[in-house]
Amino acid sequence: MSAPLLKVDGLTVETKTETGTHRIVDGVSFELQKGEILGLVGESGSGKTMACRALLRLLPSSRLSIPKGSVRLDGKEVMDLPEDQFRAIRGKRVGMIFQNPASHLDPVMRIGDQIAESVRFHHGGSKRAAEERTIELLQQVGIPDPKERSRAFPHEFSGGMRQRAMIALALACDPDILIADEPTTALDVTVQAQILRLLKELRDARGLSIIFITHDLGVVAQLCDSICVLYGGRVCEHGPKERLLAAPRHPYTAGLMGCQPAIGATGERLRTIPGYPPTVDAMPTGCRFHPRCGNEVAECSRRQPPLEAYEPDHVAACYNPVGETAALLAKESA
Amino acid sequence: MSEVTPLIETDDVVLHFPVSGGGALGLTRRAVKALNGVSLTVRPGETIGLVGESGSGKSTLGRALLGLETVTGGHIVFDGAAVTGGKRQELSKIRRETAMVFQDPLNALNPRLTAGEAIAEVLRVHKKVPKEKIADRVAELLQMVGLDPALSARRPQALSGGQCQRVGIARALAVEPKLIVADECVAALDVSIQGQIINLFLDLKEKMNLTLIFIAHDLAIVRRLCDRVAVMYLGRIVEEGPTEAVFSAPRHPYTAALIESIPEIDPTVSLPNAPMQGEPPSPLNLPPGCSFHPRCPYAEPQCSRDPPPTLRRRDDHGWACILDPGQLPPPQTATRLQNA
After folding, report:
1. Hey, of A230, A231, A268, A272, which one would you mutate to test binding to chain B, going by the most B CBs within 10 A of its CB?
2. Which three-class secondary structure state does DSSP give residue B87?
3. Which residues of chain A are within 8 Å of residue B194 when distances are taken between CB atoms?
4. Which tens digit of pLDDT belongs to each residue from B238-266?
5. What's the whole-model pTM score?
């Protein structure tokens, strides 16, 4: 495999509260290849959004800090770059879209002007050229009558259209990587399907790499190439989509898959994960999932399980993984 | 069917919210047409799912059923009492016998009351149990929704989202209602917690013969929980029938498109190649004829010309479309489930 476009290694985010310093992202590592769509999956508080904000150095509060971690873009470390040099990366090489586009678009500025502003900020050029580029971008993201619609204000757009405008804004600087933070959670299912298709087309057409943050395994299964599952700020499983969904190793991944209501008859009880996700100030010791896990062994509460490779690119952090006996038996009989 | 007296009957309910500021000088009177002739029957003990995209009027209908919105036209009858008449006695019967569970569990609870006080308040107001028995009943209700009674001293901020939602459900149950309207009550919860709440509803339904109106945009959850489902589009019910019949052989193209849009956790299934185009039109400005025609792949000239089709019924399964049953291809999901 070629050198990864993005390599995140041991990324850690800490928060200071009255109860002390807590790690909300704890040593998260993953790689992203050119043209890959990576799904970052987890429940609320799993650190999925925070990890992505940290790698763009967009932490929303001054109480949050990044004590350690390395982020390499094209093999070059960017974490220790001074802020003025980092600005050339944020937006230009790595774009980001959010769950609620309405709160990330300027309500009193025309959509077209916002995109043109971004084009000129990063690329320079004449106002005229920026306007032409804007219309081209709006067309690419599937906004009808782009010329006329570029004069509209955000409130004149529907939710799906705003998300399209947001994507156009993120694409304005021709980034290599797009971080999409739950971009379809607030949308209706029919519109969600349209946006997912658009993202896939953008990947196919321009080799865009995408990190897609979501809690919805169904979306991940349809859109992504690989999946990274986070729990309590740590990676618990990472691998190619097909293998991870066909044979999840971490009990949490298996549990999440079991919770999906899609399959099963009316009136049938859903499988659930008992208990509630941990809060930052009360993280369990050892494996953070062990109090809710049905597979735990004595070791789980004592030590944090390391990420172990089951296949070269499929890793999971568990002392007693799912399907271990089944996998062993299959190996022996082969 | 007709031998059972329905618990709720709505007849051609219309609800328009007037908005100001349209047209030149803001003098044009406009209205958000939230409900445009909804007729729905709910039998006791039934769980009915109201599904549709945002703006389809599903929440408005839920609120109107409980007398929380004043309807512009039509009738709603709850267990013999006219919800729409606005008579005090009848309204108070509705308040005593119905309850609602809301989407955002944290905002639906009073932040200054502990979980126990929030439930006790309901018991006190409705005089459900004598004063000295309130504490016992609170503990019983907490247990019923799967919460440790020790949590009753906590305020909402000290509870997780799932726990708050359970308190919200306990509050609804405290009324001992004949009917619960749950409005998107799992949408704000994590996937692993959603399942717990759905299972809780399934248990309560069995134990208490609860009538439940479950408003949701998540069709997979509705399929699990509900006996019947009503699909809404721009203030109209476009399809209504037994859950399995609707999911396996939808008769309205909108229902079919909604079912196809559910992302499935199966890596071999890819995204729909041609997802349904466009978005629902604004309820301020409804298209003429069938309001789905601008997005409908089966639209004929008459769809935009003639008045919207009324609900046709066959085998207890109604649909509002010119297409006949069997003319729509069955959704991929149904075929896959059959083959599995």
Report:
1. A272
2. coil
3. 259, 261, 270
4. 999 999 999 989 999 999 988 888 887 77
5. 0.86
